[in-house]
Amino acid sequence: MTKNTITYLLTKPQSHLMVWCYIFSRMDENKNATIFSYEILSRFSISKSTLQRIVNSKRVGSDLGVTWRWASNTLIIIPTTKVDDLAMTSERLGDDLAMTSKQEKNKRKTTSIRKPPSKIYSKCVAQYDIFCNDISGVGCKMDGLQGKSMKQIIKYLKEQCSNKKPESSEKEVEDMIFKSWRYILSNWNKLDDFNRNRMKLNEINSSLINILAKLREVPIDKKQKKRYEQISQAVKRSSDTDYSELG
To answer: Hey, what CATH topology would domain 3-110 get?
Structure first.
């Protein structure tokens, strides 16, 4: 990102600079990036229309040497030298902007519209992204498997919250789901080494019951721990003693 670009963005609302800095940080060495819109929407608390207005800044795109397309809820960034590749990618992903002919428009009318991610899903992914940043210094990496695992985690937490308080409204249940998810991530350091090193959503999903059980365990205070160690050492000394001469 050039000095001129930053100087220009500083004349805009702060969200413009933050969004473009995030996009720039996600681009690889070839200036390619694929970013889910909910990552930016939840991180910077902006609307989709505001995000589109920020991204549609031709001056910033020109300075960075990139162009972009929206493919459903995905922002695709590529170098301006590969515009043809971008059009092909957009068409493959079902980008409305790439479907320009009348035949394609008619086809789109009969095609089922992909359901956008729910609010609770976006909030949980955003919290997970913060968690990954705190632990590893980089944001989360979402793909089909991770997205499916996140939905399964939310479904399980929803069942538990609904069973615990069946009279709760949908909004109250979603609040409980998010609080439960945030509690799990904020207490991650309380887990054993095995579970603590399994940070991918599919790994968390497969071990979720064990993780919850570990977090519910009553911690042993120092006095109890010392007593257990003394007993263990006494048993070990007893097993090491040679009693053969007593016979």
So the answer is: Arc Repressor Mutant, subunit A (1.10.10)
